[in-house]
Design goal:
This protein has 15 helices and 20 strands. It is α/β, with parallel strands linked by helices.
Amino acid sequence: MFGLDFRRAAEVMGARTWGREPGRHANRLLPRVVIDSRQVKPGDCFFAIKGDRLDGHDFLEAAMERGASVAVCSRTPNLDAGAYGDRIFLRVADTTLALQELAAELRRQWGRSLVGVTGSMGKTTTRTFTARLLETGYQVLESPANFNNAFGVPLSLLRLEQRHDLAVLELGMNHAGEIRRLAQICRPNLAVITNVAPVHLEYFSSVDEIARAKGEILEDMPPAGIFVYNADDHRVAALASTFRGRKVSFSLERGADVRVTEVRAVDSNSTRFRLRTEGGESNCQVAFVGRHHLYNLAAAVAAARTLGLSREQIEGAISGLSTLPMRGKIRGLEMSDSRRIRILDDSYNSNPQAVRMVLETVGQSAAGGRRILALGEMLELGPESAVWHRRVGRMAARTEPHLLAAVGAGARPVLEGAREAGLADARTLYFGTSEEAAEYLSGFICSGDFLLVKGSRGIGMDRIATLLEKGKGT
């Protein structure tokens, strides 16, 4: 069977045993690994991770009560050894590092191709599109949910099984060096960089610094490694110019190996376009709108084509792709009193470039009815935050909204920018919280309105759609 046995796992982690020795279990495979005590099932291995807010050691007893058979700790457990005499406790110097080393060893043993996806925007959608396309020809492991950090990437790798032909993992960061470490753990053979945008500027001095941090994924690529890159992003293209391995480009505007052209909206939730890949062109249609999603699709097509899928396989799978919740899908929403509106819920995350692209979608899809924009504060933009928010306000004003609502403590400059661009004061409102915004909108909205909700889960913009649907304030 594929996996790491207790003996090898302890060796990789530099672990010492506390309490019962593995004994006859030493050659058995390490069970499923979890780091959240609430998710423990009988027989699992619980890692007591010390995070910024919580320490897993405080939940060790809860994990044992739920049936964990193994616990990995960085200090001697404050437990009655007799009460859990049938369990195995492994002590390591650092549980996070041990988790990462364990995952890196499993990835090494598995030894097959792994796609690493990073970028400022569209990582999750690109990862999902790539996995869906590749599934037409392979058994694929995909990162679940938002498992893209120092804990999530190792946990994704620890789901690898012998049956998997390929893996598609998402790599995220908000500090320099994080992508480098994640790449060292998962060792991608094919790296995708979607784009570089002004995000996490609280931790970087410039967008160029962000680009260099994203480029860390390329540092330890194997000689046969492949870089799939966005030819329309000049910073990503600059990274490609210095990469010595094989490069595959995608684009909506420039010449590239994979290109999407002749884009036209069919209706508010579908798009037709012409797809050009090596060997030919074809007409395609997808059940979503927005140029940003077409970039994600082009990246996925480039990766899938590079990994051996035929044009026919790819084209057959494209029509079945769909966007993820809170990432730009337009849907009908019926409120509790039967008012019906259309809502573009893009509330998972936000940055200035992402807002610009979604506002383009609003311009294409909001015909008929009043146009209402609820824009949340963009987080981690650093000392120039107010400047970026004013720019977004000016962009929003150009869509001529009936109402522009700014939400969050740092969002007031959005309204300032909109007024500078000519939007009347009476069409701008500020709300401190998403709940306040939802309460006002629930009374303001009329049937036939089009509502954009764009922001970050960090300030709860996703709550607006939820509260409107439940009839908050009506």
